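HUMAN: Now follow token order:
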Amino acid sequence: VKGHRDTFEVYHTLKDFKETTDLAGKPSAPTQKQFQAAVMRSRRIDPLSKRPYDNALVPAVKKIATRPGLVHKEFPGQFDWVPQLGDGTPSGRKIVKGLAVTTGAQQFVGYLRVPKSGVYHFALTTNGKAVARLHDALLIDADSQYKAGAKALSGKIALRAGLHPLRINCLVPGDSPGLSLEWQVPGEEMKTMPNTQFFIQ
């Protein structure tokens, strides 16, 4: 692999387990742009495992009608760590302006609007535990080995301007619940992320 625009080969491994017929370019297969975007949206830069596409910008999603806010879901149950919550049934759901947490397991879902293309840094602080994802990539792990009240850092992530799906799962204690997300826009200082950057469909 020499770059993020290298072409993919595509095989139907259930019908063609010997991978003899490349389906790339066929109507039944995703396009090369779709494959390339999916890969960029599912990985993070690893300083210990450098790749030739580490500095390529993660593409934003397009053609989505949005409005301000985030979806906040609350989930019943007792957990020792941040649950994935993907298959859970929420006990409450509402649209909120920002990261105003309650007690227990909860999730914020929406889009982050990135104002300009470049390398960003993020930081998350909580009195409980939290895991943040951007697209399908782990953005911040403030769960395992995390000390409540500390600032968990993302490291650098190269983003193209536009909308990027954001999901934050968190587990918040009953005493003084809190959660904050900061970012460093290219050329600026680290600061609290404004609620005006959050959107939902």
Notes: The longest strand covers residues 104-114.
